[in-house]
């Protein structure tokens, strides 16, 4: 966390804390991972999005009261040929978003059974996209400094083999 106390042009104080978290998007090929993150980060939607090769990295911040949550977002490729690379991208992540085709509604039951945050989104219409990232930002601990590459990132990582929290949220206009 970095503390700062500067005033915005309108006289409102800016967030006093900045927390940084590594977040990964996981899911099969062509389910909309890149579309979801591009809608959140750039406010864009492309009907014909090219497949991700390996992974893509983007950043975006969310404002929560006196805290700015900065997401370092890794959008992983879903094609089978890239599955062996996935652990390299999600290692040390504090949150993961599992993106899937909504015709597979087993996800709702799985989320309920495992106390996971569940939210349907649409990158095309922007439905719940910002709400997804805001909900994630609210769930993440903000009391300790976060360093995705350091010891804190490794000890708080997403464990895909056991119960893990899947979260989702909204951004302030930056």
TrEMBL record:
The text of the family note is: Belongs to the small GTPase superfamily. Rab family.
Q: Can the keyword GTP-binding be found in this entry's annotation?
A: yes
Organism in which the protein naturally occurs:
Equus asinus (Donkey)
In the UniProt record, does the keyword NAD occur? Answer: no
Write the protein's name.
Answer: RAB5B, member RAS onco family
The places in or outside the cell where this protein is found are: Endomembrane system
- Cite the entry's keywords alphabetically: GTP-binding, Lipoprotein, Nucleotide-binding, Prenylation
Which terms in the Gene Ontology molecular function aspect does this entry carry? GTP binding; GTPase activity
How does the entry describe its membrane topology? Lipid-anchor
* Gene3D superfamilies (alphabetical): P-loop containing nucleotide triphosphate hydrolases (3.40.50.300)
* GO CC list: endomembrane system
Stretches the record annotates as Disordered: 143-174
| PROSITE patterns the UniProt entry points to | RAB, RAS
Stretches with biased composition (Low complexity):
163-174
Give the Pfam families listed for this entry: Ras
């Amino acid at each position: 966390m970095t503390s700062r106390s500067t005033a915005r042009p309108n006289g409102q104080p800016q967030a006093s804390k900045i927390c940084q978290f590594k977040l990964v998007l996981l899911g099969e090929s062509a389910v909309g991972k890149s579309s979801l993150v591009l809608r959140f980060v750039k406010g864009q939607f492309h009907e014909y999005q090219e497949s991700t090769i390996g992974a893509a990295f983007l950043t975006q911040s969310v404002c929560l009261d006196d805290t700015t949550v900065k997401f370092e977002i890794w959008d992983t490729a879903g094609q089978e040929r890239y599955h062996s690379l996935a652990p390299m991208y999600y290692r040390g992540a504090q949150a993961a978003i599992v993106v899937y085709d909504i015709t597979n509604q087993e996800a709702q039951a799985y989320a309920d059974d495992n106390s996971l945050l569940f939210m349907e989104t649409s990158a095309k219409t922007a439905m719940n996209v910002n709400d997804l990232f805001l909900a994630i930002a609210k769930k993440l601990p903000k009391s300790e400094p976060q360093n995705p590459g350091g010891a804190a990132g490794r000890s708080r990582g997403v464990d895909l083999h056991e119960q893990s929290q899947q979260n989702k949220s909204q951004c302030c206009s930056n």
